[in-house]
Design brief:
By secondary structure, the protein is mostly helical. The protein is 81% helix and 0% strand. Helix 2 packs across helix 3. InterPro entries: D12N6_MeTrfase_N, SAM-dependent_MTases_sf, T1MK-like_N_sf. Pfam families: HsdM_N. Belongs to the N(4)/N(6)-methyltransferase family.
């Protein structure tokens, strides 16, 4: 599944790149890199708000799993929302 998704994403990027100048393409790429940065920071913040250790949740996959577990637990979701207010 991962290899197929990777191939499709690269194919889409190639199609997009062929229709625009390289100076325009960098704007899209920089936006995606910034979005990835924000996403990673959000996951780290979820780990901290859950009073867990970043050493224990040291990968994006582990952090995402914790995030999904917290979202599925209604009480935890309410605690996260209350903490951010």
């Amino acid at each position: 599944m991962g290899a197929e998704l990777n191939q499709r994403l690269f194919s889409a990027a190639d199609n997009l790149r062929s229709k625009m100048d390289a100076s325009e393409y960098k704007n899209y790429l920089l936006g995606l890199i910034f979005y990835k940065y924000l996403s990673d920071k959000l996951l780290q913040q979820v780990v901290l708000l859950a009073d867990e250790s970043l050493e224990k949740y040291d990968s994006v996959e582990k952090q995402t799993q914790l995030f999904k577990e917290l979202l599925s637990d209604e009480e935890s979701r309410e605690d996260l929302v209350a903490t951010n207010e």
